Amino acid sequence: MDTPKEYANRFSVTGTIAERPSCRVYRATDRESGSEVALRVFVDRPGSNPELIKSYQDEFERFKAVEHPALVPIIHYGLENGWFYLVMEYLQGPTLRSLLKEQSTPFPIERAVNIISCVLGGLDALHQRGIFHGHLDSRGILFRGDQPIIAGYYPLTISKIHKTVTSEGRLLVDSSYIAPEQVTGAEALDHRADIYSAAVLLFEMLTGEKPFSSKNQLQTALMRLSQPVPSPRNRRADISSELDAAVMKGLAKSAAERFQSVSEMLRDIALPQVTVAAVPMPEPQPIRPERAERVEGTGAFTSAGAFAPRLSPLRDSTQTYLGLEAKSLLRASLVVLNGNERGEKHLLDKSQLMLGNDAGCDIWLSGRDIPPRYAVVSQRGSDYFVKSISETPLTLNGKEQQQNEIMLTSGNVLHVGSYQLRFVAPGEQFSIAEEEETVRADDSTVSKLNKVLIAIALMLMLGAIGIVFAYQRGLNLGQGQF
Q1: Helix axes 192-207, 109-128, angle to 10 degrees
Q2: How far is CA 224 from the centre of its chain?
Q3: What is the C-alpha to C-alpha distance for residues 153 and 59, in angstroms, rounded to an integer?
Q4: pLDDT digit string (tens) for 96-109?
Q5: Helix residue ranges, H only, 356-411
Q6: What is the pLDDT of residues 91-137, one digit of tens each?
């Protein structure tokens, strides 16, 4: 590939860093600053097509406008003698791929999660500007110290990645990391392809293996279409069920079944902030087995507004939570009043909890009429509030609310789809049986009162009929006298 040695009368090529099917990466000198830079020259050329040239310029103007610690700065871009090129800061640190090769074992879980969280932060900065990377792989993640940085930009102008294989038969991307829709071209590409690639990177760091791999690149690409999504936990036993579920969701074959945003994925992969000491918890209330299995959610809002994973509920009184201070069991809760889950108690044990029809919600309520993210219950001081975060308005005590946030008080019933959730204030003694007994007593009192009222009404009615009858008889007698 005979590419120029000088670019924009400013950058002089001094060596080769890497050669790939889609591009060549050179080391170059910036004569204006005297610093070394990385210069990427793309194999596919625009010819004399002005639309492609303008498209390339527009794309990298948007890239240049995004600044984030996890994104390598773009210094310059352009067209030189028919070749598209891109100039970036030169990073001398290792790539993620080289670190993975050096490791004889998978990364520690905390390190893997921290690395991918940084990468996701950079992707989110791009996605917020309507840009997606589309070419994320372990070679394109470099390190400056402990900071991972995304460097492998690949403009869509060069190639529509969902077509993957060019007419020359070159596979332009590493097939281990591409999303299924990039293989088939059946779906329009968007930011969710980046989420898939990020999930592959996390899977690889956690297990030391890619989720789909073979010696043939095309076969590797096709495997994600024909084979089920693998579980990283099946390859490494100390991966939590929550993290396992998050990785598998990121690897979903359909983009619609993946995380719909980077923030969702960050929420579900976050690790609990725990210390070494184990503090015994006071005697917990019995937890129904079906409750314990169902509510092991993958995420919960923290007071800072971000998400952190949920700890699984205690199974018996001998268990402890790592690093948690012993707190009073006098917590508020939402109790299901109806349906198959009647009597189930949802403790409001976080500063913020999400309700909705999604396994990642703290309070998971199934039903087609319930949005995946319906509302957030938050605690402020000693008060509790519920706030709608969907287009579905709040319904409290059978009445649709105009405001999207309301304060909960003892006895309030929140209606969510077919669910009725009774708010139980901290310290309040409440049980379904007592509630039903109260209702029955109230019904009995009402019934007795109704009977009295009915009797009075009947007596009044009979009296009225008697008066009318007597009056009519008097009229008849009067008419007979005349």
Answers
A1: 170
A2: 22
A3: 11
A4: 999 999 988 899 99
A5: none
A6: 888 999 999 999 888 999 999 999 999 999 999 999 998 888 888 99
